[in-house]
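sorry for the late reply, my laptop died twice this morning and i had to redo everyting from scratch. anyway the thing you sent over, i finally got around to it. pasting the sequence first so we're on the same page, its 372 residues, then the predicted structure underneath. double check i copied it right bc i was rushing
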Amino acid sequence: VVLAEAGSMGGFDTREFMLICENGEDTVFKCDSCEYASNAECASSRAPQPLPPGDATGTRELVDTPGAKTIEAVTKMLNTTADRLVKTLLFVAALVRGDRDLNEAKLAAYLQTEDLRMANDEEVERLTGAEVGYAGPIGLPEEVAIVADDEIAAMQNCVVGANQTDAHIVGANIGVDFRPDDYTDLRYVVAGDPCMKCADGRLQGYRAIELAHIFKLGTKYSEALGALVQDENGEQRPMVMGCYGIGVSRMIAAIVEQSHDDKGIIWPRAVAPFEVVILLLDPDDADLAVSASKLHDELEARGCRVLLDDRQERAGVKFNDAELIGYPLRVVLGKRTKDSGQIELQRRRDGEQFNVPTDTAADEIVGILQEL
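ok and here's the structure:
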């Protein structure tokens, strides 16, 4: 269960129910030391301690960086690392460390807006006087608010854009050369970041499939719609609402992702469309056909979900299809059944085989299913 964004639906105390899965479409971060877990969209890490005022050493310097419009190009030209750079992204002037990515959803939430876009090339040139790629926090117009990620407060002697084409400033310091209007959490976390809830934990990233999503709506919609209820004092109040969604089709896909091998699906018994498949290897043998049909009906009468495969197909095709579809238990009636009076059973999950007498097969099958 992880923290999550409510999105356009709105609400609070939002939670997603995630299944860790290598092929999942989402990323979640979990602390390796406490219970903190969150979707990557809203995950946060512990902010570093800000540097005390006056701790900065060195002075700023304007350096030529011709053609260096990207973090990679700047770091290579200046022989430095991305964590020494401050990226200035013009929604407002949003500052994040050079090796970090801005989380636009966090910035939108901070600005309390759903209408957020980055400045286009023309707007960037008007605000900074430079081409795109050279924006920085020093010398921006007063109309541009500067909002910095919490990590910026712990940086000194930074590299920033000079608001001048083909130039950057090195040795820039907060409180000396520029001063953000505010600090907040603006970035996507990465694996290894410190946990925001405990002192020792580190966040680990996992791929996951979202199976369900719940969140509280409060009275947001009921007030707008005039959906009122009478309380115990006879007063009309807006009803309190919540959303609870479960992805039924996603659950099927998630189960298959978690429970399969190179031969096919391995259905857990609880959700298998059929718990048992009976493979009649020779449908033209009247005696075997009667035995298979009798066993099918007996198992069905005892509440088992059972399928009789009496197709006119080769035995190999039926075996392969049974493994591909993933029935929890396979029952085989063939020539050996007539010769030995035994029916062959095989569990799909581990391939273990059993031979049981024909006349007690139903009891044996029910017993095995109960153990699954």
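The longest strand covers residues 203-218.
thats about all i looked at so far, will dig more tmrw
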